[in-house]
Amino acid sequence: MTDLLVKLFVRESDKVRDPAVRERYGILSGMVGIILNVLLSAGKFFAGLATGSISITADALNNLSDAGSSVVTLAGFKLAGQKADDGHPFGHGRIEYLAGLLVSLIILLVGVELGKTSVEKIIHPEELSFSPASIVILAASIAVKLWMSLFNRKLGKRIGSAAMLATATDSLSDVVATSAVLAGILAGHFAHVNIDGWVGLVVAAFILRAGWGAAKDTLNPLLGSSPDPALVKAIRDTVMSHPQIIGMHDLMIHDYGPGRSMMSFHAEVPLGTDIMEAHDAIDHIERELRETFGIETSIHMDPIDMDDERTAKVRGQVTELVRAIEPQMNIHDFRMTKGPVCTNLIFDVVVPHKCTLSDEEVRQRIERAVRALDSSYYVVLQIDRAYVSTD
C-alpha cells in the first residue's frame, strides 16, 4: 500500500536527496495523517459520548492532536522545500527539524492534559455504558494506527526524515494507548471493574514517553549531533581510495537540513607531488563525494614530506608519545626545522572531546615527553579539539 501511494503521488521518488522530492514525500505523509486522524477522532468522540468513557474521549483528543501534528509536518515540509535566498544561503531545510520538534511538543502537551483528566477520573469515577460500536471503532483504530506507524516509518527511513520518524513513533504509541483503552472498556463490562481513569493515566504515560523520545530525535540535529560513524568511515574509504591521498584529518560536517549538508577536511599529499596533479585529484574527490553522499565538500590540501627518513622517524616517535597520553590523540602537519641550537618540531595535535585533560595539560605533557626523547627538540604545537574521528 505504501509503495502504491508513493508511486501515485511522489514523482521521481528515488531522488530522495532532492528537496522537491522530499517535499512531495512530506505532503503525502501529511495528507494521509490529516485524513485518517480526523476520521479516527470523529469516531472516538462518538464512542466516548456513547459510553461516557474519559479514556475513549482522551484517545479522540489524541487523534485530533495527531491531525494537527500532520498539518504542522505538512507545513514544515513545504517551508523546508523553499529555495535558498540572500538571507538563508544554505536553504530552509532545518525547518523540517523544527516541525518535528513542534509535533513533539504537541504530543507532550496532550499527554500532560490527559494525565490531569485521568487523575480526576480516578478520584471521582463515573459509571460507564457499554457500546458494541465503540469496540468496533477502537479495534479499527488500532489497525489503522499500526498501518500509519509502518507507513511513516518506511517513508521516514527512505528519506531520512526525523519529523516522519517522530510521527511513526507517535502512531505506535497510539496503538498501545488505544489497546489499553479497549482492554479497560472490556474489563469494565465483563469484570465490572471501573479502571477507566487508570487506563487513561497509562495512555498519558505512553504519550509522554513517545513525545519525549521524538523531541530528543529532533533536537539532536538542531543542536549539532555527531555524524553517523558509518558515514564517516564511508567518506574516509572514498577519499583514501585515491592514490594521491596519504591521509586526512579535521573532518567537519555541517547539517543545514536533510539533503543540505556541507563538509570540509584536510587531505594530505606527498610533498613532491605535481601541484596540478594534486589539484585535479582534489577536484575529482570533491565531485565524487558530492555525487555519492549528496554533501557539498571543500578540501584543503596539506603537503607532507614523505622522503626525509629522519622526519618520518621522529614523526612516528612523537605519534607514539602522544598516543601514550591519550590513545585517540593524533598529530598532523608535522614538520622539522633545524636551528643552530635546537630543532623545532612543529605539528598539530588532535584531541578527542572526551579527553578530560585541559589544553594546557596536554601541551605540558607532550612537551615533557618530547624533551625526554631529545633535549634539543623544541615543540611548537597547535591543539585542535576533534569534531569527528577519522582514524
Task: Provide an overview of this structure.
- This protein is α/β, with parallel strands linked by helices and 391 residues long.
- Helices cover 63% and strands 14% of the residues.
- The chain contains eleven helices and six strands.
- It has helices at 2-9, 19-51, 54-80, 95-123, 132-159, 162-190, 196-223, 229-240, 275-293, 309-325, 359-373, and strands at 247-255, 261-270, 295-304, 330-338, 343-351, 377-385.
- The strands form two sheets. Strands 1-2-3 form a three-stranded mixed sheet, covered by helices on one side. Strands 4-5-6 form a three-stranded mixed sheet, covered by helices on one side.
- Strand 1 and strand 2 (261-270) form a beta hairpin.
- Helix 3 packs antiparallel against helix 4, helix 3 packs parallel to helix 7 and helix 6 (162-190) packs antiparallel against helix 7 (196-223).
Q: H/E series, N to C? A: HHHHHHHHEEHEHEEHE
- Give the overall average pLDDT: 83
Residue share in helix: 55-70%
Main sheet characteristics: 3 strands, mixed
The residue ranges in which pLDDT falls below 50 over 5 or more consecutive positions are none
Number of strands: 6
- Strand arrangement, major sheet: 1-2-3
Distance between the termini: 43 Å
General shape: elongated
Q: Can you count the helices?
A: 11
Task: Evaluate the radius of gyration.
Answer: 29 Å
Proportion of beta-strand residues: 5-15%
Report the structural category: alpha/beta
